[in-house]
């Protein structure tokens, strides 16, 4: 297989990639719903989209990346009922929906940066694009794809012949058996809201006037409206979690292909698998979550979490356990340690020797972003005895443009990056004992710390400790 091949959910196979327009690749990624803190599972979609971007960059493409921020319309229930997640969070905390959205957007963007994700060119908020969403719903209404009921304006999925195609849905199985809690008046369980009316007697923080009455946009509408706004009526790649295939992405496709008579609206659909957590799905709604700050508190660097992500293929389910993240943290430290030994060493590399590793690294990433295989090539380089220090650094620096592990600047976990007053005090005591010639005492402290996995090292800046 030569050239970049990416798995396309739309066709259920890997395909040779080429953009619609020259060397410009346009990507839209479904972003976070900002009603609470994003957990480390929620970061996987953006680590995946970032890896995709970096591989495209290495292949010589120019990328425009748009990520949306859902700050209205995402309901708590599975179907078109239940409270809006933002409104519910506002009610619980006594703060405004706007304040909550701002806080968690800021935190999410900071976390994305900490795990090495490049900034997108556009971050767009649903509440800033209500006008475009109303325009899209009107367009669908004018073309006869909608019906109005007491709850709002709905998309009539029976009018779109390809509705079941993308997710390979069995719509007849859904028929008749309406889902528990579903909206009265819906013609088919799969039909979805384009505009929801504020219920009588209810006051929402977030509501707008529309041709159908005061209310708010259905969740799916924002991604169609904003991707068209920033990327045009056709674009190259749409990403998101696998959970989006049967409903959210199916509905985005229905709306957009009907409104604009385009097919396929998006060429490549790419979906990343979930991270499970101690045998269960990590999910905000079940409270089974781990934040990036929780890892940092335990001495795991954010980039070690990126290293953990790179250890599995993005289409593989990945299991998060204490042992797995600790193993990744150690692996990352070791790779950084290897990089430090050769960092900045210059010399004349042998192009033939570099070429072989470079080709294997590239081939792995070109094969639907096979990061674990590419990481293994980086390790071969780091450990190679055939390559000079300059050659190793030249390759590692180049690979790191794609891996994003900051091999040029990172330091391993040492006293400098981790502080622990108890260990600092024991190390100082040992130093005192050595100075006073109490070598037995000094050795005893060293052995005691070694039993905890702490290694003491003499460096130019004095004595330091690190975890083994
Ligand atoms: P949300 O903020 O809940 O809308 O989720 C944001 C994104 O995170 C969605 O694209 C989900 O598919 C994805 N996601 C949620 N939980 C996980 C998980 N445990 N592993 C991987 N992706 C997840
Ligand atoms: Zn979306």
Please give the domain count.
Answer: 2
Q: What is the CATH topology classification name of the largest domain?
A: Rossmann fold
Low-confidence runs: none
Major β-sheet profile = 5 strands, parallel
Q: Give the overall silhouette.
A: globular
Strands of the widest sheet, in order across it, are 5-4-3-10-11
What's the level 1 CATH class of the largest domain? Alpha Beta
CATH second-level architecture of the largest domain? 3-Layer(aba) Sandwich
Give the C-alpha Rg: 26 Å
Task: Give the termini separation.
Answer: 40 Å
CATH superfamily of the largest domain: HUPs
Number of helices: 15
Mean pLDDT: 91
Number of strands: 16
Task: Provide the helix percentage.
Answer: 40-55%
* Percent of residues in β-strands: 15-25%
Which ligands accompany this protein?
adenosine monophosphate, zinc ion
What structural category do the secondary elements indicate?
Answer: alpha/beta
Tell me what the structure shows.
- With 468 residues, this protein is of the alpha/beta class.
- The chain has two domains: 5-272, Rossmann fold, CATH 3.40.50; 322-467, Four Helix Bundle (Hemerythrin (Met), subunit A), CATH 1.20.120.
- The chain is 43% helix and 16% strand.
- It has helices at 40-58, 85-93, 97-114, 130-142, 171-174, 219-231, 245-260, 292-297, 302-310, 322-342, 351-366, 371-383, 389-403, 421-435, 439-451; strands at residues 5-8, 13-16, 24-29, 62-69, 122-125, 146-149, 152-155, 192-197, 215-217, 235-241, 266-272, 275-277, 280-281, 318-320, 454-459, 462-467.
- The strands form five sheets. It has a five-stranded parallel β-sheet with strand order 5-4-3-10-11, sandwiched between helices. Strands 6-7-8-9 form a four-stranded antiparallel β-sheet.
- The longest helix is centred in the last third of the chain and has 21 residues, at 322-342.
- The model has no long low-confidence stretch (mean pLDDT 91).
- It binds adenosine monophosphate and zinc ion (ZN).
- Zinc ion (ZN) binds next to loops.
